[in-house]
Write a structure and sequence with these properties.
mainly alpha, two-stranded antiparallel sheet, 2 strands, about 65% helix, elongated
Length: about 180
């Protein structure tokens, strides 16, 4: 498998980043829902949020790399079977996914730093609290984090359904290209 994208399919770097982001988004969503039900006496009461924050910061770094990667290695050309409306919806959909991921991560940062404490990342280093003490910061950022996370996961599910539609109904190479198969 090729490392870089070609005009016909995605390279290994793009594929790995895509699937790592997808895995992280769904794992963070599940962990986030689960940890909100923990009580003070749970052994995970402090560990789950710390893990959630550390993985979230790691995802933020991966997303920054992914955005940079798109500038250095353009994505494959759209399939000739895709209509202009499908191409437009694809661009808009991907833009919304990227925007949703960044909004969730920035709101998570604002929740975590509302009281002026930084974010420890796997106990290796700390992200400083550059923005804190805004009126109702944790509450407002928490609401944004919650609702945009739900929207992101729902939209990512629709994204997956669209890929399956292309694979099973349209019988085109859309999904195969993100799995590393298809024309070279």
């Amino acid at each position: 498998m090729q490392l870089l994208n070609s005009s016909n399919r995605y390279g290994l770097v793009s594929i790995v980043m895509h699937w790592l982001v997808a895995l992280a988004v769904f794992a963070l969503f599940g962990l986030g829902l689960w940890m909100t039900g923990l009580n003070y006496y749970s052994e995970w009461y402090r560990t789950a949020p710390a893990l959630h924050k550390s993985v979230g910061v790691t995802l933020f770094a991966l997303m920054l790399l992914r955005v940079l990667w798109r500038f250095f290695t353009p994505k494959p050309a759209p399939l000739s079977t895709h209509s202009s409306s499908e191409r437009l919806l694809s661009r808009l959909g991907h833009g919304l996914l990227y925007l949703g991921i960044f909004v969730v991560m920035i709101s998570g940062y604002l929740i975590s730093t509302a009281e002026g404490r930084g974010i420890s990342v796997f106990d290796l280093f700390e992200i400083p609290a550059l923005i804190s003490g805004l009126p109702n910061q944790a509450d407002l950022a928490g609401a944004v984090h919650f609702y945009v996370a739900w929207g992101l996961v729902i939209f990512a599910g629709l994204h997956a359904l669209a890929a399956l539609k292309h694979h099973f109904i349209d019988r085109d190479a859309t999904l195969k290209r993100m799995l590393g198969y298809g024309p070279k």
